[in-house]
């Protein structure tokens, strides 16, 4: 089976401050996982704020250098310093979808201008008919059409519609992989599921793999095939999404699941955090431990006991 994406033992350290107050932040530590080229999937990265999700995504997109390890896309090293042609070819295959669609579009520019310039760039053409066709096809894939979008500015659309336009833009080069960093967190709660379902249909109907980055366990449970849970830069648990979320093993994964607000518990007045779980999860921070493969197909980080 061939590999679409191979993240091999990747770490990222940021150095901050001057000569005298130098501080090193290890944003990602020894992350490894791979996606198959034959079996499209939604692969989710979950973790609290600052756990390294975005840094990992930026390295996969070639927007950030890795400090150690390597990332291969279809066997070729992802390299942000590769020449213009090589970068363009890579970007046609791995497209980002960002969190805030209102930031992704300039409020003074009509939406179709973005779609047009992406089509021109990746299809290497100035032929208006070809560009219009590519834009319309991409918009149809997300449940819109060029007729509906033409002439409109970003503020004339809802957050959900605009995020659909951002996803349509990303689909223009027909990429096999999308990296969606918190794509629903800025969209109204009532429209969120339509975007989540859209990601699902991109996988099921178009064969696009998606790396879905989120804080939200509920949508992760609903759409993911596999997931990794990250705590302060380290993968603490990885495996089939339902296996992991039905019965999380690592203390941090259990804490995350335990922190999800259940309406039943809230109704019963059971909202206090469990201090012993918080302590257990915090005790693991900074300890490398070892990610151990388990017979049920998941991997869980374990620590030596004193
Ligand atoms: N350019 C940078 N320079 C210095 N430190 C950085 C930089 N980018 C990220 N970091 C640090 O790396 C760590 C991981 O950050 P990252 O943004 O990847 O986390 P995250 O899980 O995506 O968080 P969030 O959910 O809030 O977006 C944090 O401690 C952050 O402060």
From TrEMBL:
Alphabetically ordered keywords of this record: ATP-binding, Nucleotide-binding, Transport
SUPFAM superfamilies, per database record: P-loop containing nucleoside triphosphate hydrolases (SSF52540)
GO cellular component, one term: plasma membrane
Principal location: membrane
BP term (GO), one: peptide transport
Residue ranges of every copy of the ABC transporter domain listed in the record: 5-257
PROSITE patterns cross-referenced by the UniProt entry: ABC_TRANSPORTER_2 (PS50893)
Places the protein is found: Cell inner membrane
Membrane topology reported for the UniProt record: Peripheral membrane protein
GO molecular function, one term: ATP hydrolysis activity
Protein name: ABC transporter ATP-binding protein
């Amino acid at each position: 089976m061939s590999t679409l994406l191979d993240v091999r033992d990747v770490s990222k350290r940021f150095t901050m401050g001057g000569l005298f107050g130098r501080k090193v932040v290890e944003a990602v530590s020894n992350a490894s996982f791979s996606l198959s080229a034959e079996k499209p999937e939604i692969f989710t990265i979950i973790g609290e704020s600052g756990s390294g999700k975005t840094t990992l995504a930026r390295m996969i997109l070639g927007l950030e250098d890795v400090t150690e390890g390597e990332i291969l896309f279809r066997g070729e090293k992802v390299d942000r310093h590769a020449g213009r042609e090589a970068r363009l070819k890579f970007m046609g295959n791995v497209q980002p979808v960002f969190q805030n669609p209102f930031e992704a579009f300039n409020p003074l520019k009509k939406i179709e201008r973005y779609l047009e310039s992406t089509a021109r760039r990746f299809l290497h053409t100035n032929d208006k008919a070809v560009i219009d066709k590519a834009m319309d096809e991409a918009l149809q894939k997300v449940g819109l059409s060029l007729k509906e979008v033409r002439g409109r500015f970003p503020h004339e659309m809802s957050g959900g519609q605009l995020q659909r336009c951002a996803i349509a833009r990303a689909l223009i080069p027909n990429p096999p992989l999308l990296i969606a960093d918190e794509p629903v967190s800025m969209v109204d709660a009532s429209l969120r599921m339509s975007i989540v379902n859209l990601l699902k249909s991109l996988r099921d109907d178009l064969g696009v793999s998606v790396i879905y980055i989120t804080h939200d366990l509920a949508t992760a449970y609903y759409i993911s095939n596999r997931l990794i849970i990250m705590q302060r830069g380290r993968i603490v648990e990885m495996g089939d999404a339902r296996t992991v979320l039905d019965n999380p093993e690592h203390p941090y994964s259990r804490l995350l699941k335990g922190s999800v607000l259940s309406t039943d518990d809230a109704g019963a007045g059971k909202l206090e955090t469990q201090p012993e779980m918080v302590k257990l999860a915090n005790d693991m921070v900074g300890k490398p431990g070892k990610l151990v493969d388990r017979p049920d197909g998941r991997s869980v980080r374990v620590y030596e006991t004193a």
